[in-house]
């Protein structure tokens, strides 16, 4: 009987040792780098293209997605870090042509560059993201609206991807 109890205690000790030494730990702080960056400032993205209002769509999408992670307080005074973003290029190319050679759908491609900078001004990490979306242009009355909506969808998708990268990397 004593031998059985001792064996169970030894096995329990070995199991607990293996379980608690596996390297997993509970997340204790919000933010990145173990809680060093809990608040982020997201200024309006720089628009280096000729596409009007593109920076507003992109900035809005990234701000919404960062808020939805629940890890950061966004746009607070004295933030622990800031995300500097710039729109490098927006390209529009025909995607689908009808039988007469007129474009029915176009592709819009968005290229952005992001940099995470600490409170002290030191660059932490830099990313370059790119994505493409199709939109309809067969009705000229809706072409501009469809283009803006495609830009909003790309921005939201890129923001989700960026937040996923942040969560996986840190």
If you had to describe this structure to a student in words, what would you say it looks like?
- With 170 residues, the protein is of the alpha/beta class.
- The protein has one domain: Lipoprotein like domain (Double Stranded RNA Binding Domain, 2-Layer Sandwich).
- The chain is 38% helix and 32% strand.
- It has three helices and six strands.
- It has helices at 2-20, 54-69, 140-169; strands at residues 39-41, 46-47, 73-74, 81-97, 103-118, 123-136.
- Strands 1, 2, 3, 4, 5 and 6 form a six-stranded mixed beta sheet that branches.
- A hairpin with a 5-residue loop joins strand 4 and strand 5 (103-118).
- Helix 2 packs parallel to helix 3 (140-169).
- The chain is elongated and about 90 Å long.
- The N and C termini lie far apart (50 Å).
In short:
The chain has helices at residues 2-20, 54-69, 140-169; strands at residues 39-41, 46-47, 73-74, 81-97, 103-118, 123-136. It is an alpha/beta fold and 170 residues long. The longest helix is centred in the last third of the chain and has 30 residues, at 140-169.
Topology:
Layout lengths: L1 H19 L18 E3 L4 E2 L6 H16 L3 E2 L6 E17 L5 E16 L4 E14 L3 H30 L1
Parallel strand pairs: 1-3, 1-4, 2-4
Antiparallel strand pairs: 4-5, 5-6
Helix pairs in contact: 2-3
């Amino acid at each position: 009987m004593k031998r059985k109890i001792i064996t169970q205690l030894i096995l329990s000790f070995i199991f607990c040792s293996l379980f608690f030494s596996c390297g997993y730990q509970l997340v204790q702080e919000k933010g990145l780098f173990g809680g060093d960056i809990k608040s982020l400032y997201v200024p309006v993205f720089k628009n280096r293209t000729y596409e009007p209002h593109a920076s507003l769509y992109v900035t809005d999408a990234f701000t919404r997605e960062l808020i939805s992670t629940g890890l950061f307080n966004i746009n607070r005074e004295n933030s622990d870090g800031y995300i500097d973003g710039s729109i490098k290029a927006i390209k529009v190319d025909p995607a689908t042509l009808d039988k007469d050679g007129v474009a029915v759908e176009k592709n819009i491609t968005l290229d952005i560059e992001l940099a995470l900078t600490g409170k002290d001004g030191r660059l932490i990490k830099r990313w370059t993201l790119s994505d493409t979306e199709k939109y309809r242009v067969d009705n000229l009355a809706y072409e501009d609206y469809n283009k803006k909506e495609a830009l909003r969808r790309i921005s939201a998708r890129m923001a989700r991807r960026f937040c996923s990268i942040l969560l996986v990397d840190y």
